[in-house]
Amino acid sequence: MALLNFRKKPTEGQATPASPALQDFLKGYSIEVMPRTAEKVEDFRDLLPDGTRVYIAHIDGTPIEDMVATAKRINAEGFEVMPHFPARIIKDEATLADWIARYQGEANVKQALLLAGGVEKPHGDFDCSMQLLETGLFDKAGFTQLNVAGHPEGNRDIDPDGSRKNVMEALLWKQKFSERTDAKMAIATQFAFEAGPIIKWADGLKEAGVDLPIHIGIAGPAKLQTLIKFAIACGVGPSLKVLQKRAMDVTKLLLPYEPTEVLNELANHKAANPDFNITQVHFFPLGGIKTNANWAIENGGENTAPVNVTKG
Length: 312
Hints:
Layout: E1 5-6, H1 20-26, E2 30-33, H2 35-38, E3 53-56, H3 64-76, E4 80-86, H4 93-107, E5 111-115, H5 129-134, H6 137-140, E6 145-150, H7 165-180, E7 185-191, H8 195-208, E8 214-219, H9 224-233, H10 238-247, H11 250-253, E9 257-258, H12 260-272, E10 278-284, H13 289-298
Parallel strand pairs: 2-3, 2-10, 3-4, 4-5, 5-6, 6-7, 7-8, 8-10
Antiparallel strand pairs: 1-9
């Protein structure tokens, strides 16, 4: 079974239409940007379907002013904005309250992705997303959607021993939080490349009592070298070995990666199992926002319905 789809672009008129299952699976997809990558897009309305949820990644060192300005611009173009709130780079509760107020006052933000963040040592009082939730500030501000991070291949930062014990305990805590509050939540995951392990992980969450909707992270079209660089930086696990093996073949090294294979497998599984808990696709546009958006359009993503922010 192919894990990745490396192929040459078809010549004009030879493109294979996307299957109905894939088109359905891509409905409501979201995409992630950073302030510096968003600057390269003249108008997101030329690329994304109406109502697309746009996550804004907050990398350590990015001024909050740049984050808010990006959120304001994308919101003004008609999209649902979901900025990251990385716990470990937020100094204290006052800083968190200030960020929330800025996002709401200037960019009408009502959604957030809460995560620990990529820094090893916290900058202040917060170490994990659960502490952000416990402040109650997002509820007081009337946020309609609070997504949290998921890791289909585990996370060595959270579980250094390679187990998934701490990750699972955190997701169970967040599940209970969603049940005892009015918070509408979903799990947005790190990207992965094999459908089989993704399906097994998602089914395992449900069996453990976590029924939050899953928005599966998928790496968009990119050069293999670019993909390996980001996979290493993001701590992608077994999938990285697949990429490294491919990189040893010079003929495949020069071909672009596209997520067709993994998405088709997930889409077919969803079509056969409608209750499958992966409900949306979340793209990491590692090869560029325009490239990713065009790929989504070519594969049926242009007819995406507006995201219903009240249902995850």
